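During the second half of the funding period, the structural biology subgroup turned its attention to how the target accommodates small molecules. The most pressing case was deoxycytidine diphosphate, which had performed well in the primary screen but for which no bound structure existed. We therefore specified the complex as follows and requested a full 3D prediction, including the ligand pose.
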Amino acid sequence: MMERSFVMLKPDAVLRRLMGTVLTRFEERGLKLVAVKMMNISEELAKEHYGEHKEKPFFNDLVSYITSAPVLAMVIEGDDCISLIRKMVGATNPKEADLGTIRGDYALDTGRNIIHASDSPASAKREIALFFNDSEINEYALPDESLIYE
Ligand code: YYY
Ligand code: MG
């Protein structure tokens, strides 16, 4: 099923100049970027985005980290892409993430794991709406779709 996922390169990915490297992985896989923007997240938006973790001991550190420098927020479209992107991202703790995953190849600490990706269709819908207006999401066809999809 065609899905959209919310993906965000966290401040460490931006500051470590890993944006192109990570975007290339998604593009080379055949996924389609339909929205991308660099932005500073307000404390309010950070708390809303990570609302499910508000009682956790790491919540305050997470909010300060995510608001410390710009992020690259994006919407990616593709067949079953929500779970696919989670697999490409790897485990939350980069030390446990498989090699070949984004976190497994480029990160070491849970609190500096460089990327966020939606974990379900419901969270994708919620997170896309938090970060993007409908008018910021681009609908277009890729010329090689018949080579990527059966
Ligand atoms: O979805 P994912 O990012 O893989 O992990 P979550 O369990 O949703 O946690 C969100 C975010 O919080 C995680 O990417 C890093 C941070 N975090 C942390 O700093 N310490 C933990 N023990 C768990 C999560
Ligand atoms: Mg999560």
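Two results from this model are relevant to the next phase. The chain has a mean pLDDT of 98. DSSP finds eight helices and four strands in the chain.
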